[in-house]
Amino acid sequence: MATVKGKKSITLNGTDPIRLNGRTEFEWQDDGWADGFFFWSPQRGSVLNVTLAASWDAGFLRIAGNLGARIRDNANGDRQLDGIFCSNRANDIINLRRTDVDVIRTNGGNDRVNIGDVRFELLSTGDGRDIVNLNTTSWVGAVFLGNGNDRITVRDRDAGVNMISGGEGNDRITVRAEAEAIMANRGNDVVENGANWIGSISTGRGRDTVILNKGDVDYISLGRDADTVIARVRGEDAARVFIDGGENTSGGKNSDIDKISFANFRKALDIDLDSGRVNSDQGRFELKNFETVIGGRAGDRIAGNWDDNRLEGRAGHDSIYSGEGADTVVGGGGADRFVFRDVDDRMDRIVDFRRAQNDKIDLREINDDFDFIGRQGFSGDGPEVRFTTGGGQTRIQGDLDGDGDADFTIALNQALNLQQNDFLL
Prior knowledge:
InterPro entries: Hemolysn_Ca-bd (IPR001343), Serralysin-like_metalloprot_C (IPR011049). Pfam families: HemolysinCabind. This is Calcium-binding protein. It comes from Paracoccus fistulariae. The protein is mostly beta strands and 425 residues long. 0% of the residues lie in helices and 45% in strands. It is built from no helices and 42 strands. Strand 27 and strand 28 form a beta hairpin.
């Protein structure tokens, strides 16, 4: 083990002895092999700059104690290391372009690792706010980011990574290449794919966001708490993506209201949260355990399920079907049709009914023989619909059986003087 104090620089080139402090610390064998190199410092702020040059093989390069590592290689030559181990308490920087390493491991500290045309089996960055960039043409092994708010980017160069696993912390994981599995784990994480295949994405606990681009993903599991999927346009020939919003919370003030947005879709969507099916010429999905859905820019059909849903139509002439729960529906732009199908004690709500846009409230699936009686009280003479206003809101009430009592109520977020032609009865 060689002791380093202050800032030192060495070059590993397969031939020249490694000298520090006026003495030879390590030597190469005649065939360009070395068992390993071990550097340590008791002094905080000490840094060792290591340049990897020429062609050679070695066992390990280990940095320990308070010694910070700055490791880079030259573009010329080919090198192979069994491992780079920064088992230190410092911020390390590793830049590799042409050196294959079986295992790369950093410890505590805010580390930066940039990988070019390099093969590795394991990359582990330990705890800290680490940044990893993979820009390789080779398939590589597993990446473990450890705890901390980490960031990893995998470029698209016709290669991929077997697995990426984040630790606790708010991680940003961007994978443009192929990947077998991505596990974000605990924290408020953001995971984004590119145009290539990914086997599975699992986000674990926390308020996570998955940005789903053109690439196929076999399965997405969002885990606990309130998560969001932003779905981008994929194409009619793309495989169906299975997405589970997950159930339960991590406790405390967390909620489990999962949302999926199709706001970038330009062609009509058929979204049914009850069956879980989403069909469009721009992508197909299978959903489970989602409470909120946002439609696209065309005339969508959006249907709720048994839960308390929020259903948003956005632009286009949308048809929005409430489910069995206390639903909140938003039409957005266009002439929208709000369809109510079930009668229970829970009250649905329309956020933005607009007569000027020719929006309609459709009650025909509840009963197709309603009489509209305006603000009058129920007469007890058959199915009737009335409304009241107060507190800046409107409440629509329906009597189905003619007993003079309201069997259902629908709230509007504005105080409106409703007319019969606002309804489809």
